[in-house]
Specification:
Its EC number is 5.4.99.18. By secondary structure, the protein is of the alpha/beta class. It has 6 helices and 5 strands; from the N terminus they run E-H-E-H-E-H-E-H-E-H-H. It has a 5-stranded parallel β-sheet, sandwiched between helices. The longest helix is centred in the C-terminal third of the chain and has 19 residues, at 138-156. Bound molecules: 5-O-phosphono-beta-D-ribofuranose.
Length: 164
């Protein structure tokens, strides 16, 4: 199997329905990726191991989805200089506003790029990762431009119902 260049991690298997959008977009662009559950508060040692191994294993960025708190993307970013893209996962009581504000409000010095709440954010994190990687990968740049072109074609074909 090809070496992953993007790692997609999430705090729980309950995050998968949101985070699968990131994996699906990476796979559609033929970007080698991996996905796994890494919980900051329930498996802290695994988090440290994952962060320590990220650069040596060839990961170029990490997409981290978290519900309720920023500790997964935040602590990953604290333990590696591999860029971390944070996806706020909708939470049961505050619908992901808690996730968004905690991730986007990382204190100065250790950045986490923060995306929209939910599947749109997960998809955009993957597309952002693709754009970062495309600078050094002409074939990926072409695939990303093709994706944009197909998206444009689909919107141009949209019609609305007649009214009145
Ligand atoms: C966070 O707690 C996870 O990212 C998840 O969004 C949330 C709830 O986890 P579960 O109780 O569903 O395992 O760590």
């Amino acid at each position: 199997m090809e070496q992953s260049v993007v790692g997609v991690v999430m705090g729980s298997e309950s995050d998968w329905e949101v985070m699968r959008a990131a994996v699906e977009h990476l796979q559609a662009l033929a970007i080698p990726c991996e996905q796994r559950v890494v919980s900051a508060h329930r498996t802290p040692d695994l988090l440290f191991d994952y962060a320590a191994g990220a650069a040596p294993r060839g990961l170029r960025c990490i997409i981290a989805g978290a519900g309720g708190a920023a500790h997964l993307p935040g602590m990953l970013a604290a333990k590696t200089i591999v860029p971390v893209l944070g996806v706020p996962v909708p939470s049961r009581h505050l619908q992901g506003l808690d996730s968004l504000l905690s991730i986007v409000q990382m204190p100065k010095g250790v950045p986490v790029a923060t995306f929209a709440i939910g599947a749109a954010g997960a998809a955009n994190a993957a597309l952002f990762a693709a754009a970062m990687l495309a600078g050094a990968d002409a074939a990926l740049a072409r695939r990303l431009l093709d994706f944009r072109a197909r998206q444009e074609t689909a919107v141009m074909a949209m019609t609305l119902p007649e009214t009145g």
